[in-house]
Amino acid sequence: MTSTVPPAGRPAAGLPPITMVGPDFPFPYDDYLGHAAGLGQIPATAHGTEVAVIGGGLSGIVTAYELMKMGLKPVVYEADQIGGRLRTVGFDGCDPGLRAEMGAMRFPPSSTSLQHYIDLVGLQTRPFPKPPSPATPSTVVDLKGESHYARTLDDLPQVYRDVADAWQRCLDEGAEFGDMNEALRTRDIPRIREIWARLVERLDDQTFYGFLAGSEAFRSFKHREIFGQVGFGTGGWDTDFPNSILEILRVVYTEADDHHRGIVGGSQQLPLRLWERAPGKLVHWAQGTSLASLHEGGAPRGAVTRLHRTAGGGITVTDASGAIRTYPAAVFTGQSWLLLSKIACDETLFPMDHWTAMERTHYMESSKLFVPVDRPFWLDKDPVTGRDRMSMTLTDRMTRGTYLLDDGPGRPAVICLSYTWCDDSLKWLPLSPAERMEVMLASLGEIYPDVDIRRHIIGSPVTVSWENEPWFMGAFKANLPGHYRYQRRLFTHFMQDRLPADRRGIFLAGDDISWTAGWAEGAVQTALNAVWGVMHHFGGTTDPTNPGPGDRFDELAPVELPED
């Protein structure tokens, strides 16, 4: 098959830009959000009713914000801090403008629902430097002790271009990439569903690596190895090799790995600004009402320690202070594993097959370490070669990915010395921040022997290993082969008319409930699903001119594989 569009990120002339509607449930969330009629309304008799929202990450805050606009009273519980994996931190003793993104740091333009909220709160974005892109002055690829300097892909040796071409051919020949990309751009729902149903049935049991190895384009082990170690876009793909190929296809179809942008000042501003924002259009509440003003002291309630059902279908929440409150509905937006370990739960909260799906959720580990530096010294030119003194770096050494982040010449800057996933992340887990930094500097010293990074460092490192964070236990969900059925159960949980009456009233949302975990767009989309579910639970409806995800569910429902 010949692709009808150029390689990912380069749309054919005349085709509209793509959005992360996704092949599993191609509902136009961006249109739904932007419609003048709003997301729906609830009966006046329900106005002011409290609804528990458990988790103050992006999904929880979007859920709470939209429920408040409908006239409900969201009560947000948060164990740590507002933001979840939108976590932006500073460096002790340094310029407060120096910030490090410990979680989400790059967002594709296809995340149009996310962009709705970025625009709503007045945040700005700018190109994020990833390899190789116009926002990245230069990239160094260092494999097996050999380094190559490049400003574009064409500057690398031919084998790297061969690998990039092999990846595109693999997608075209094995995953109908061009046809699906075009169908997603034009929102041709029948075509999207036809292609995806065929692929889900054929590929659900296939690993990413198996998909590559079975392709004639990747018959060379050398090409597969280079692709795993370096990749194209966010870096190496080998940590994803054991995962389902369907997870990878969702990323490339929707161009989630292309044209990344960062949020100026840090991503955590988004949920924090939504928390403080007073919407212009409110039902029931006085003008000037915000989520902060609805909470005593302007802060969420603390960690949830127990969830159980009580008479009349209530969802009873116990928090870390010992306070017990019962709600007619609740939305859980945290990592689903918390329901298996950190929070005492009644089994009656969810159907048993949903518990099985939560237990089978597979999380990716992820670590980062940042240091503040005096200036973007990497832009200095080597007097002999004329090259940048240091570059965005992809390597098979311990650091794997090194990112250089600056705010302009002469200003203090930040280096992400290492960004790793899975086994590469676990290698850092026993080490202190100082020990991690020393290993990273030693690795980079082998690549840049004439660059003294240490003398530019002006503050202590900051680091995170998300698998060691007690309220996360991992960075993001990544389905293994055979997990499609589990993901479908979790994603469709908001359609509660299909559940037994005694299993309704608590809704799942958040990154790991979405089909596109690891991207903030999925957190937003599942929040909007939960908002529709709560609205419907209270007898509310959407405007006929702006049907919600539940109204169109039967038309768009994810492929259903047999379970016998």
SSE layout:
Elements lengths: L28 H6 L15 E5 L3 H13 L2 E5 L10 E2 L10 E2 L10 H9 L4 E3 L11 E5 L2 E5 L7 H18 L1 H10 L2 H15 L4 H6 L7 H9 L15 H9 L7 E3 L5 H8 L27 E7 L3 E6 L4 E4 L2 E3 L11 E2 L6 H9 L2 E2 L1 E8 L18 E4 L5 E5 L7 E9 H5 L6 H15 L14 E4 L10 E2 L6 H8 L14 E3 L11 H18 L15 H4 L8
Parallel strand pairs: 1-2, 1-12, 6-16, 9-13, 12-21
Antiparallel strand pairs: 3-4, 5-8, 6-7, 9-10, 10-11, 14-20, 15-18, 15-19, 16-17, 17-18
Helix pairs in contact: 2-10, 2-15, 4-8, 5-6, 11-14
Describe the structure.
Helices cover 29% and strands 16% of the residues. The protein is of the alpha/beta class and 564 residues long. The two termini are 34 Å apart. Mean pLDDT is 94; it is low at 1-13. The chain is globular and about 75 Å long. It has helices at 29-34, 58-70, 112-120, 158-175, 177-186, 189-203, 208-213, 221-229, 245-253, 269-276, 352-360, 422-426, 433-447, 484-491, 520-537, 553-556, and strands spanning 50-54, 73-77, 88-89, 100-101, 125-127, 139-143, 146-150, 261-263, 304-310, 314-319, 324-327, 330-332, 344-345, 363-364, 366-373, 392-395, 401-405, 413-421, 462-465, 476-477, 506-508. Strands 7-6-16-17-18-15-19 form a seven-stranded mixed sheet. α2 (58-70) links the parallel β1 and β2. It has 16 helices and 21 strands. The longest helix is centred in the first third of the chain and has 18 residues, at 158-175.
